[in-house]
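Standup, Tuesday
Yesterday: got the pipeline producing structure tokens again.
Today: sanity-check two examples.
Blockers: none.

Example 1:
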Amino acid sequence: MSGARRLLAEFGLPRVIIALFLLGLFAAAPLVGVSLAASLSDTVVRFGMNGILVLALVPMIQSGCGLNFGLPLGVLAGLLGATLSIEIGLTGPGGFAAAAGISLGFAALFGLGYGVLLNRVKGGEMMIATYVGFASVMFMCMAWLVLPYRSPTMIWGFGGEGLRTTISVEGFWLRVLDDFLSVRIGEEFRFPTGLLLAFGAAAALVWGFFRLRVGTAMTAAGQNPVYARAAGVDVDRMRTLSVVLSTMLGALGILAFQQSFGFIQLYQGPFYMAFPAVAAILIGGASVSRASLVHVLVGTFLFQGILTMTPSVINSVVKADMSDVVRVIVSNGMILYALTRRPAEGR
């Protein structure tokens, strides 16, 4: 097999087609009046915003728990940390660090219970995970109304209780990661150095974890639980640990997303957050039983690049604002492809 064919076989024809389509959109952008610099900047920022959320899927896939459709549970832990940080009145890097610390505590607790549940439903993890994600969001829809928050920037003005649907982080820790060592080239391109460093640090920790003895045991438990059990590995413990790690990464991921996006979205905001992350890692080449950092990086960039560029280019071509319609069609179409493609493509 020639080098080009071998590379094509390893990378996968679907990802080559998606990558070529994305390159075509970048090439077409200046021709239809879309700023290429601004488009590249938006793509890089969205890549950093969503990277940790996609990375959060890796531990559960490697341990044999499948795709984490219960990712909203980790997102909710992040939302609790974010709102409590604002409630206390913490700002800047310290406020963001406090939000992260609080979030990790909630995420560890939620993940422990979630992991115990998944150990009782082996073989149906992804279905149960979906129910857990949806049910937890619905439960918190009620909780956001009755929890004793008092910060005037978060509660409803009328009645003086219950959290608003959308809460701005401006004045607290808006773009605290994006602006750290950020580089601006021209007027339209901004490189979010701090955001990408945070994503890189999280990816490096996950990579290092799977090089440790416990990480190797977790992978073995996912690939061949019978052999792993015979070798002395506590498979249920490894599965639970992977769920806790995935939930904690999900909490950190939503904080990175919020500080860049500028808003905390409560109530039904986290409802479908697992699906774009799942689609991204599958498009990157992962399967339900194997995932790597390469799959995370490639999939996140391709998915977010297509999601960023398609509405802009099409709007300029048809001379009408169809961004929301196009974004829904493109995102759901890519999710449908990712969830229905043959497992052999992810190997």
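Example 2:
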Amino acid sequence: MISVGIIGGTGYTGKYLIQFCSKHEHVNEMHIYAKESAGKNLTDLFPEFEGSIKNMQIKSVRELSYDHDLYFVSLPHGKSLEVIPLLIEQNKKVIDLGGDFRLNDVKLYDEWYNINHDYQYLLDQKHYGLADIYTNIDSNLIANPGCYPTAALLSLLPLACSFNEMVESISVSAYSGSSGAGKSPKQHLLLSELYSNVQAYNVGTHRHEPEIKQQLTQCDYDGNFTFVTHLLPIDTGIYSTSVINLKDEIHTDDINHAYFENYYDKEFIRLRNIPPQLKWVVGGNYCDINVTVKNSTVIITTAIDNLIKGASGQAVQNMNLLYGWNESTGILSENQNNNHKVLIEGM
């Protein structure tokens, strides 16, 4: 049994961390830390927890205890740098849901995040926590992937790693609900702005682009890559469409074999015979993937819940991998586990 500290536990991702940890059979203690919300009661912030999760007072980050075994850090970009190095010095296990440790080079943080990053040694020792791909964790610092990179990389890596010499170009168009921008009020996220509207944003400048490219490089792919994000008039979900152009035609069975080999035993990956729908994944930790091959072009459509699979659910999945527990503990009920196994075996 372990004690867990959740730093920044009052945002959208923090809410799910609280839910998952409160029912986790290996977590016997949980404390929540925040800044503006410090001193308030949990049920004041999340009234829906009344009667289902033990009420507690939110503690101040300035009074952070070093007595916990593991810390989830869910802070805005740049803020994790103020906390995580101190936790690592105390030999604590840390799962960072922010972007401060996802990249491998401090120079990229100046270029893409406009922050001064002085912790190259932590970037060198961190584990990039794409939980359904990188399951062997040998670091106390886990950088939880971004929501867009989770959807894109789970789509691309089986192909990019198996057929990298055949790949000519990769293009990803991804769409997110408004919750991906967090709780802070912003004009373009007002209902009157979102309703009946779709827009591309941060074209060519999105911070998740170098994160995706970094992992593709691990598969020895350094060819042409484009990434365009869009905002949908919904609150939750990410839908990603990847178009991969190959140098030669490829048989559908060869592609399907690569994906099956990578994902046949993965609890939270569902390979679909048709393009997935967002409503199939919202509220869960699943990633639904469909692969379509047409001559020398591969089209991959993918759907995830950005707050769960793209954040808190994957973070708890990483905690389970770190401690050697069942990967779905605290995330799925036993009945859900069984149902998922039937789905995979019946494909």
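Quick observation on example 2: The two ends are 37 Å apart (CA to CA). Residues 77 and 99 are 6 Å apart (CA to CA).
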